[in-house]
Amino acid sequence: MKHLTRRLALPILLLCAGPALAHNPMCECAPVDAEQIKCTGGFSDGSGAPGVTLDVIGYDEQVLVGSKLGDDSTLTFKRPDGEFYVLFDAGPGHVVEIDHADIGEP
Prior knowledge:
Layout: H1 2-17, E1 25-31, E2 36-43, E3 53-58, E4 63-68, E5 74-78, E6 84-89, E7 95-99
Antiparallel strand pairs: 1-2, 2-5, 3-4, 3-6, 6-7
Signal peptide: 1-22
Protein name: Secreted protein
Keywords: Signal
């Protein structure tokens, strides 16, 4: 009886566990015009990211724009002079970096 219980326990536990639903961070930045960039953040499960930290950082590690995504999960900011990257930080393991060269020109 003891062996039968063990054999049934594993399949039952596996059925109850269900698939793990991962949600990876996503962020896109695109030029609005020659002077502005708009970034949109969210997660791969389709959820938005209002209030998530989005910083624009120079290559010297100076924060040029420190902000959070708005209620629509977007942030528009003035394009900095020089080289920079955008850091979308939704917590440990949920970080996206976008280099200025990947944003392009309008």
